Amino acid sequence: MIDWYKKVVFENYANFNGRARRAEYWWFILANMILAVVAMVIDNVAGITFGEIPYGPVYVLYALAVFLPGLAVSVRRLHDVGKSGWFYFIALIPLVGAIWLLVLFCSEGEPGENQYGANPKAVE
Question: Is the pLDDT of residue 72 over 70?
Fold first, then answer.
């Protein structure tokens, strides 16, 4: 899990080119969720939350730091299933868009090379 997180956050910080396997995307999401909860706990234990909401500056800084890598890995994941990164905006369609995007993120990538690059399964 740590290797996937390092690969996405540090090595491909703002790389919107190429393709990302399902494992790369979902390991990043899992690590991101765990670290976001840790940041929230730190804010609450330190007593530095913003009023009644359980978020504070540590959480906000963490969220800002991983926004761009999260967007980049999402675009590369869409590339793996043969969709443009602009397809991410399908999530703006209430309910249906988010479900459709989730299905795409869970789908297996296109076999072989596509217009966005080589199959990441074949490269590794």
Answer: yes
Q: In this structure, how many other beta carbons lie within 10 angstroms of the beta carbon of residue 41?
A: 13
Question: Considering only CA atoms, which of 39, 91, 102 is closest in space to residue 65?
Answer: 39
Give the three-state DSSP class for 17: coil
Residue in 31, 46, 32, 25 with CA at minimum distance from that of residue 106: 25
Residues 10-37, buried b or exposed e (16+ Cβ, 10 A)?
A: eebeeeeebbbbbebbbbbbebbeebee
> Looking at per-residue confidence, does 93 or 3 come out higher?
93
Does residue 13 contact residue 69 with C-beta atoms inside 8 Å? yes
pLDDT at 47 over 70: yes
Q: Give the global pTM.
A: 0.88
> What's the Cα-to-Cα distance from 109 to each of 16, 55, 81, rounded to whole Å?
16, 36, 4
